[in-house]
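step=encode ok
step=design start
structure_in=
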């Protein structure tokens, strides 16, 4: 609404006479949205349209090629039989699954993984020829591999730890997938099972023991980031319905430039009133709190830029609410500070005691807000409400940043400036 963006129309990439179930189309939409908007801060919105189409909206995006590239990261996930000679991670391969080969690239985790049963984890065995990744060829290899099953049979995939405490990926299969996997692993022990996303190998673990319980662990020399990337690819890599981009068009901001200007003006007025109140009521400590508040705002915006966070209306609401939390922490500290000064404490003691006695209230209030953010995030993730997810993430980041400014920035400013002042000479500077 504030920045405009791109609207893309996706259609099932199947023959015109092929039927697409509403359930498969809905699952495809959820997977695409989860991959394009994992945290909810991008505010991507996707809706089914008719029996074969999905409408996707990308706020703040103006490059259609960028959108197409992000969508193509979510393709066909396959578990393929590679026998005793695995393909290197990153290699394009051909399979006998009935879908056209894709040449998309995916995140390439460390090669040399091993697959074990969730109930019976064993020490990883790494083939010597998989010790280091090799550059992916420009054309698929000539060998046609057999697809044992696709990602449609995968229920869950999460980062876990292997028997030695190293990062690994645990997975759970559907009942149908568990049966297929049990039959395959029982007859193909000590052979390689390739995990292939969009016809590109992302891992080639060796089957060490039959996996009959429908769950297992992919072990290997993963870093935490590599394990997380692989879990995401497994979790969101399978589309029940392949899709293609039919149309893309740029959409202007519906609220318009005037509304953006008014929103910015309202935010500046609100921030100015808060700064003025702190300055008039708390005098010198209030001035230092205003500096800390400005520091908080700059750090928060820098963090939003780094992630990045698209500040649509829900994101802006979360940010503004977190500003209130930052001011609240300073007010608690300064009220305690004034109480200690009235009790006859010197300035250094009053600062330390005021902060330590205000900390339990600051801690509890921010913790309850973070718990609420977690509940909102789970709700938004469960029901596909990306705006709720975006609001919760933005608010949580703001609360964490406000804790940092209250604990570190404000306290440092107080000691730096006030430790060298004599309270008896300047009582009005402290609102006494």
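sequence_out=
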């Amino acid at each position: 609404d504030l920045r405009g963006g791109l609207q893309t129309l996706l259609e099932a990439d199947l023959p015109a006479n092929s039927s697409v179930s509403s359930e498969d189309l809905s699952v495809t939409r959820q997977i695409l949205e989860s991959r394009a908007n994992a945290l909810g801060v991008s505010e991507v919105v996707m809706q089914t349209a008719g029996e074969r189409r999905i409408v996707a909206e990308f706020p703040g995006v103006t490059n259609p090629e960028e959108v197409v590239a992000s969508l193509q990261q979510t393709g066909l996930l396959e578990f393929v039989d590679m026998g005793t000679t695995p393909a290197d991670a990153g290699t394009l391969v051909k399979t006998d699954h009935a879908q056209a080969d894709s040449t998309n690239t995916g995140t390439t985790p460390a090669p040399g993984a091993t697959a074990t049963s969730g109930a019976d984890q064993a020490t990883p065995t790494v083939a010597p020829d998989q010790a280091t990744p090799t550059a992916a060829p420009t054309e698929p290899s000539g060998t046609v591999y057999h697809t044992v099953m696709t990602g449609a049979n995968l229920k869950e995939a999460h980062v876990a730890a292997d028997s030695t405490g190293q990062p690994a990926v645990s997975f759970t299969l559907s009942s149908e997938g568990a049966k297929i996997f049990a039959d395959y692993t029982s007859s193909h022990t000590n052979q390689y099972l390739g995990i292939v996303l969009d016809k590109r190998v992302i891992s080639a673990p060796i089957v060490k023991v039959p996996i009959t319980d429908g769950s297992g662990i992919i072990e290997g020399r993963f870093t935490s980031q590599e394990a997380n990337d692989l879990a995401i690819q497994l979790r969101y890599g399978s589309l029940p319905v392949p899709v293609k981009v039919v149309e893309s068009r740029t959409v202007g901001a519906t609220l318009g430039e005037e509304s953006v200007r008014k929103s910015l003006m309202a935010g500046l007025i609100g921030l100015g009133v808060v700064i003025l109140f702190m300055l008039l009521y708390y005098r010198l400590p209030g001035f230092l709190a205003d500096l800390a508040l400005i520091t908080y705002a700059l750090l928060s915006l820098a963090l939003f830029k780094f992630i990045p966070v698209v500040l649509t209306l829900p994101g802006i609401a979360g940010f503004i609410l977190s500003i209130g939390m930052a001011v609240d922490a300073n007010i608690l500290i300064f009220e305690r500070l004034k109480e200690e000064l009235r009790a006859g404490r010197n300035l250094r003691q009053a600062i330390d005691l005021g902060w330590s006695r205000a900390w339990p209230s600051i801690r509890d209030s921010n913790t309850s807000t973070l718990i609420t953010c977690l509940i909102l995030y789970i709700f938004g993730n469960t029901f596909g409400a990306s705006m709720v997810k975006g609001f919760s993430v933005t608010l949580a980041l703001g609360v964490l940043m406000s804790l940092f400014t209250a604990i570190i920035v404000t306290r440092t400013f107080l000691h730096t400036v006030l430790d060298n002042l004599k309270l008896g000479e300047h009582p009005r500077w402290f609102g006494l």
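step=design ok
step=annotate ok -> The first helix runs from residue 22 to 36.
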